[in-house]
Amino acid sequence: xxxxxxxxxxxxxxxxxxxxxxxxxxxxxxxxxxxxxxxxxxxxxxxxxxxxxxxxxxxxxxxxxxxxxxxxxxxxxxxxxxxxxxxxxxxxxxxxxxxxxxxxxxxxxxxxxxxxxxxxxxxxxxxxxxxxxxxxxxxxxxxxxxxxxxxxxxxxxxxxxxxxxxxxxxxxxxxxxxxxxxxxxxxxxxxxxxxxxxxxxxxxxxxxxxxxxxxxxxxxxxxxxxxxxxxxxxxxxxxxxxxxxxxxxxxxxxxxxxxxxxxxxxxxxxxxxxxxxxxxxxxxxxxxxxxxxxxxxxxxxxxxxxxxxxxxxxxxxxxxxxxxxxxxxxxxxxx
Amino acid sequence: xxxxxxxxxxxxxxxxxxxxxxxxxxxxxxxxxxxxxxxxxxxxxxxxxxxxxxxxxxxxxxxxxxxxxxxxxxxxxxxxxxxxxxxxxxxxxxxxxxxxxxxxxxxxxxxxxxxxxxxxxxxxxxxxxxxxxxxxxxxxxxxxxxxxxxxxxxxxxxxxxxxxxxxxxxxxxxxxxxxxxxxxxxxxxxxxxxxxxxxxxxxxxxxxxxxxxxxxxxxxxxxxxxxxxxxxxxxxxxxxxxxxxxxxxxxxxxxxxxxxxxxxxxxxxxxxxxxxxxxxxxxxxxxxxxxxxxxxxxxxxxxxxxxxxxxxxxxxxxxxxxxxxxxxxxxxxxxxxxxxxxxxxxxxxxxxxxxxxxxxxxxxxxxxxxxxxx
Lengths: 335, 374
What we know:
The structure holds two protein chains of two kinds. Chain A is α+β, with helices and mostly antiparallel strands. Chain A is built from twelve helices and seven strands.
């Protein structure tokens, strides 16, 4: 691991410990507070991947993966918030050299929502040009959105809370209905598809951070919680399963945090980590018993977020087809 | 061998489904879910319209499945006011049955079962709530956790310790069942909020501080409470299997509709998603058959705990498997639909009325003891 990556990891870990850990449940209930967003900006986490001539830190891919991993362990919502701004919004703006929008982003004047229901096979956009329904990030004043004409737009407008609906995951980011006032075309659907492929490592980092966060809590709990007068960790089904999950996690982390991870390996990791995070968080909840079902224990959020994130940023059909084609060196898995 | 239900049961299932489709709309279910509110008016309506029928256990089982297929939170809420009634029916005195059960059946009262405690879920015999006999009453001290109907039930069938055996290995002895009313002095309850799913159901912690319970509220014999409760779990696990199969069938219905729509619109479906649908459907069918077999033993007064645990364990894992798979197949569409609520509701099936691990302990123990399901 290079020095910049080590530094970024410890900075992100310290930040999560100092500013997120104690308010992680509050973030789930009330959203990411403006004070936290402000601190994320001040510390340079948001927009960090932008090149220095655009005002960013030119953060290398490994450092970005480590940062997202550390945040996801404590608050998947905060990790996803940074991911969407660094991997999608910044990249779209940078491609168009939109310096004014980048400046506004780095100064905290603009806060972006994400909207791409039509990106996955079979999913349809149910919005019109008048309203974009259920945009991710309830406090956004701008949105990067995929419209039914198959084009990506940067949209300015106003948001309104969604009534009678609580999202499954990323509750810290929240959702809103967004009313466009002005939109600028940024390219075709493929722009987003390409960004999601290139972000495979970062997506894997969030999934693995979620898994590690839930397993850390479970390690703690199974050490102290007793049943039939023995700690849970003394029972084979718990201890063996935890050992198995920790082993899988460790091997995937080893690959993810390697300087040499290439595009195909990162894509493989995204596939594996998406399903692993669901498995790990499900066992984490199970080993907490009834307490795991309660928000206060901070375990159920990992389970919800792993499934919700999968639905939002992981594309099971397209990603597997892309990976199969890379493995065969030829177009595969399309029949 | 006949795998078909009787015409009477089919008609009953149809009636329950029609009621559920009419009353448990997505909008209604969503409001109760968000507000974590118990749907009392739906409970009363279901009773008035004869939707809840506990006179025949097959009907109970089928009714639960059909309601949970439409919405698990509302389905469970409407069928759970009788929770624990079997303990009273099987072991309560005529006086207790008349005093308490009649009013539940009439819709005037709600009951609950108080077994789980803060320090122990699976370890039932390790409970700490103590009832000390003083003249013609018991004085109860302790607490209960994750109690369904905890802040709305009028009374609870409650497991307490009435004696302390000398041998710790025999701690399942000395437990008894009492009927404890909410309005007894020293009784308190706190609603648990922020649950992942089944949020329309009411769950609470109960606190018992020198609660005086008349001795006549003892159910059956003193010291036999553990066995009564284990007997009850052998019954209730069939009904949790029905809840689970309802959930699994519910997400299967919705996933099938989603894929049919794709095909209809000429969109790509792919074998990957079709195979997953096939696996969901197969597991739902297998779970249902296992439940029917376990139920046929139980409802013919010949309970088979191995089969019951198999049915509950497999059906509950099928519910969460089906809900997760449905989320995978439907992606963002599922995220913005009822499927996400089914997903949140499904996980508790693997925890309550005996975790999956407990079911596996029961099954393996019985198999190793030589029970061949004959």
